[in-house]
Amino acid sequence: QVELVESGGALVPPGGSLRLSCEASERTFSTSAMGWWRQAPGKEREFVAAISRTTGIESYADSVKGRFTISKDNGKNTAYLQMNRLVPTDTAVYYCVADRGGSYAVINGPSTWGQGTQVTVSS
Question: With helix as H, strand as E and coil as C, how does the chain read?
Answer without folding.
Answer: CCCEEEECCCEECCCCCEEEEEEECHHHHHHCEEEEEEECCCCCCEEEEEECCCCCCEEECCCCCCCEEEEEECCCCEEEEEECCCCHHHCEEEEEEEECCCHHHHHHCCCEECCCEEEEECC
